[in-house]
Amino acid sequence: MLDIKQIRENTQSIIDRLNTRGQDFSFLNDVVKADEKRRELLQEVESLKAFRNESSKKIGMMKKNGEDTSNLMSEVSKANERISAIDKELSEIEDSIQNTLNVVPNVPRETVIVGKGEEDNKEVRKNGIIPQFDFTPKAHWEIGVNLGILDFE
User: Fold this and answer.
1) Would you tell me how many other CB atoms lie within 10 Å of the CB of residue 80?
2) What is the pLDDT of residues 116-137, one digit of tens each?
3) Distance CA 50, CA 44 (A)
4) In this structure, are residues 107 and 28 in contact, taking their beta carbons and an 8 Å threshold?
5) Which regions of the chain are under pLDDT 70?
6) Half-sphere exposure of 91 (CA within 13 A, CB side)
7) How far apart are CA 45 and CA 39, in angstroms?
8) Residue-level pLDDT at 49
9) CA 4, chain centre distance (Å)
10) Model pTM score
11) Nearest of 100, 103, 88, 101 to residue 38 by alpha carbon
12) Do the beta carbons of residue 63 and residue 91 sit within 8 Å?
């Protein structure tokens, strides 16, 4: 799976390389936008959590001194509600990004020759000895059915 940071930094070059696979991968621009939104929300939620932590300390000190804490507690309550809403939105955005990235294939190397079919692709090398049979080999599904280890019916 591709790293979102890599996509964020090299969006167009990754899209161009992936498009050589014969599909349109321009939807990665939407993934980058969703990631930007996710990062903004993370900053907001972190600042709200910092405010909540600071305020909790202040409330403790104010109560110790016998001061009224209702205004500050109200603000902390609003911050908690906003944190919950942001956490839910973050979860949805992160799931969406993850689901999209799960279907994106690896980026082909620059040296890979782009071809539309088998005839456009050249054979670079063969490994090992290619077996020659004096009979017609059976496919694995035929062998499995004959051995009784596969049952397609």
Assistant:
1) 13
2) 777 877 788 889 998 999 999 9
3) 10
4) no
5) none
6) 6
7) 10
8) 96
9) 7
10) 0.71
11) 88
12) no
